[in-house]
Amino acid sequence: MRFAAFVILIGFLLSCLIELGTAIAQPSRVSSGRIPLWSTDAPVCILAVNRDDPGLELPAPHLSPTIPEILGPGQTELDLSGVGGQLNRMMVGADVTFSVLYADGVSEGFNDPTLGTQRRAAFEFALGVWSARLQGPGTISVVAEMTPRGGTPTSAVLASAGAEQYWREFTNAPFATTFYPEALVEVISGSDPDLTTAEIGVDFNSDVDNGTVLGSCDWYYGTDATPTGCDIDFVTVTLHEVAHGLGFVSSGRSSGQFGIGNPSFPIIYDRFLVNGTGTPLLNIAGASKMTNPVFWAGAVGSWGHTNNFGGVGNAVIYAPSTFSGGSSISHLDESTYTGVWDLETPFHDEPTHDPDRVMFGVLEDIGWSRPESRYALDAASGFEDGSSANPFNTASESATAVPAGGSVRFLPGTFSETLLVDGKALLLESYGSAVIGEGTGGTPSAPVEPVP
Predict the structure, then answer these.
(1) Is the separation of the CB atoms in 119 and 144 below 8 Å?
(2) Is the pLDDT assigned to residue 406 strictly greater than 80?
(3) Are the C-beta atoms of 415 and 440 separated by less than 8 Å?
(4) Pure H helices in 56-179
(5) Are β-strands 435-437 and 444-447 bridged in parallel, bridged antiparallel, or unpaired?
(6) Which of 139, 142, 357, 436 is deepest in the core (most CB within 10 A)?
(7) CA separation (Å) from 268 to 20, 85, 184, 369?
(8) Could you give the CA distance from residue 303 to residue 306 in angstroms, rounded to a whole number?
């Protein structure tokens, strides 16, 4: 079915607070250096039960092993899919493949003779959830470990995860002088900047299963989101941790400083953090900015918040009065987002296997895209491929490129152009109100469907 041509006028209630940086014409990519897990001064997540317990000790910072360290000299990510004796799997989604390397020793962690099969199945199930929701192409490699990390009968660390490296000034980078997680760099630039390290590292606490740590509470390795008693759903925690490896994390520290690398630059997530008046935290001096209130200024994440929680405003970021490294400003607010919305809050409450519209909106704002969508931003310039990171600057380009059954997602701006809509795609607002009009100055004939 094909409709008559008409002029599309799309207006938004709130203009984006973030200005796109100039894309780099001839980049010379720069690495941040490797990022240690369990470090309160690094852009990683540290997930724990009752972290304030004075008897709970955080593990020492830990670098995930490189590919050659695990598989041998000369081995790279390209060798992950066919190495004899290595327990690795390929999880294929719409456009993204997850390649997994379990770095535990024989009979340890993910290779445990009793629980190893269940642990790997739950971990790979969670990666399948993510791979089906991310637009590529790209292969995201993950080094996964499960290490005895101790704890008490009432408190324990659960996991730590993050990007193995961050990169800036790479091909098609949307922002200059800004670090991006390696997995996103691969998707945006079309090439893997370092084949000797994985994109994401994650380490789980195997002692949760020992009957002493957290008492009778163990890991639950089922994939049906129905743990019994106080057991902790492993799939939910994996989904949470992988999101941090994809870039849902800040480089902010208790001192109020942001940035990684030498010289230091912020990571892309940092650019969207604002205070209650909308001032970017990067532009505010001092440490007090790191505590309540802190909000997310990205259009898509905030649209998910306002569309589902009423009113207008930005998504709320977790920023307690006492800064907690590995937790503060790297999660959604615990008290605001509960139930099915708490996947990316700092405390494990209940199982959920579906990344919600707020937390996935944050990932879209930093540059990830949905496989079925093409994005349009009237102010976009430089390289364009219709992704969230590099959107088209016209509605017609997006409508032409969108896959059948997909959606055109308009970022804040105003589009005025003739557009043929053939019925194969939804036209969606990403934030605020949007209408389709018949001719310049005509009466709006149909709203843009407000579906995320």
Answers:
(1) no
(2) no
(3) no
(4) 67-71, 116-131
(5) antiparallel
(6) 142
(7) 11, 38, 11, 15
(8) 5
Q: Which amino acid is at 451?
A: V
Q: What is the pLDDT of residue 8?
A: 29
Give the DSSP letter string of 370-395. -TTEEEE-TT--SS--SSSSS-BSSH
C-alpha distances (whole Å) from 44 to each of 24, 93, 208, 295 are 27, 25, 21, 19
Report the length, in residues, of the chain: 452
pTM of the model: 0.86
Strand partners, 376: 392, 410
The token duo for 116 is 């190893």
Identify the pLDDT of residue 329. Answer: 97
Q: pLDDT tens, 353-393?
A: 999 999 999 999 999 998 888 888 888 888 888 888 888 88
Q: Categorise residue 286: left if φ over 0, alpha if ψ from -120 to 50, beta otherwise.
A: left
**Greatest CA separation found in the chain?**
70
Closest CA to 398 of 409, 390, 388, 389: 409
Of residues 403, 304, 318, the one with CA closest to residue 363:
304
For residues 151 and 72, the answer to whether their CB atoms sit within 8 Å is: no
CA dihedral sign, ordered 169, 170, 172, 178: negative
Q: What is the dihedral of CA 69, 179, 280, 363, to 10 degrees?
A: -70
Please choose, from the candidates 22, 64, 21, 58, the residue with its C-alpha nearest in 3D space to the C-alpha of residue 41. Answer: 58
Report helix, strand or coil for 304: helix
User: Could you tell me how many helices (H) and strands (E) the chain has, helices first?
Assistant: 7, 21
The number of C-alpha atoms within 13 Å of 72 and in the hemisphere containing its C-beta is 6
Q: CA torsion sign, 54 to 326 to 151 to 230?
A: positive
